[in-house]
Design brief:
By secondary structure, the protein is an alpha+beta fold. The chain has 8 helices and 9 strands.
Length: 261
């Protein structure tokens, strides 16, 4: 399947937006580890800004960055939201509530626990009625999301926004899911090249191969965040040359992305 990457949004530890991240991946700026910021996207109406969780706001923030300046109306873009664990903080709070004597869960907290909550907030923020898919494939959720988004681009010949995000679980769940850093990425995929010269990706499934290593210099503890599986692809985008990136997918398959001409 062939698609083109028109725009990127990214937010992680020491990675504050695509412009800064691209400079770091090119070696033009040093990488400095800092906590991931907790954005409050201005695209969200005031009520949704109050009701939304940190995880949902993180996903909406990178989606907003990817579409900022892109020649695609936000309300006309199909979306694919991918996450390995959903909202770990909300899951923790619900478990605490259910383990307590009152066993009550606030309606807002329950609303935010739904797996497609980020997609719902994005739809409200943009007024979009375009198709939206929310999926989970544990550690390979980014690869599964990319495959789904690329398939939609190839079949429907329309722009698709892929958003992948994961945040840590608080203790005690952190012990069984030791994600340390918040991280999210958004990729606007389109079916044809434009004057802005986006990078072409050819995506295939092939027998299992060794996955491409993350780019050097980026905090190693970020590699445990499943959404950060995208880092080799971000490095290829930053470099701008031809490269083949291999991502883990299933036990017997790898997702191969041939970047560039």
């Amino acid at each position: 399947m062939e698609c083109y990457v028109q725009a990127v949004g990214v937010l992680g530890p020491g990675l504050e937006g695509w412009t800064a991240t691209r400079s770091i991946l090119r070696g033009e700026e040093p990488y400095r580890l800092r906590p991931t910021s907790q954005p409050i996207p201005d695209i969200l109406p005031a009520t949704e800004r109050r009701r939304s969780s940190d995880a949902a706001r993180l996903a909406v923030a990178v989606a907003q960055e990817a579409l900022r300046g892109a020649d695609v109306p936000a309300d006309d873009v199909a979306t694919v939201f991918a996450s390995s664990d959903g909202d770990g903080e909300i899951t923790h709070k619900i478990c605490e509530s259910l383990a307590g004597p009152a066993r009550d869960v606030s309606p807002t907290m329950f609303h935010n626990s739904v797996y497609n909550a980020p997609a719902g907030y994005w739809s409200i923020a943009t007024g979009s009625r375009a198709s939206s898919t929310s999926l989970c494939a544990y550690d390979v959720s980014f690869a599964a999301g990319l495959l789904e988004a690329a398939a939609q681009v190839a079949v429907e010949r329309r722009a698709v926004l892929l958003v992948a995000s994961d945040i840590p679980f608080p203790a005690p769940l952190h012990a069984v899911r030791p994600v340390i850093h918040r991280f999210a990425v958004a990729l606007l995929l389109i079916p044809e090249a434009t004057a802005s010269g986006p990078m072409r990706w050819n995506i295939t499934l092939e027998p299992r191969r060794v996955a491409t290593s993350p780019p050097p210099g980026i905090e190693e503890s970020l590699h445990d965040n499943p959404a950060a599986q995208c880092l080799p692809l971000l490095a290829a985008l930053a470099g701008g040359g031809s490269e083949t990136v291999c991502l883990d997918y299933l036990d017997s398959l790898s997702l191969i992305v041939s970047c560039g001409d």
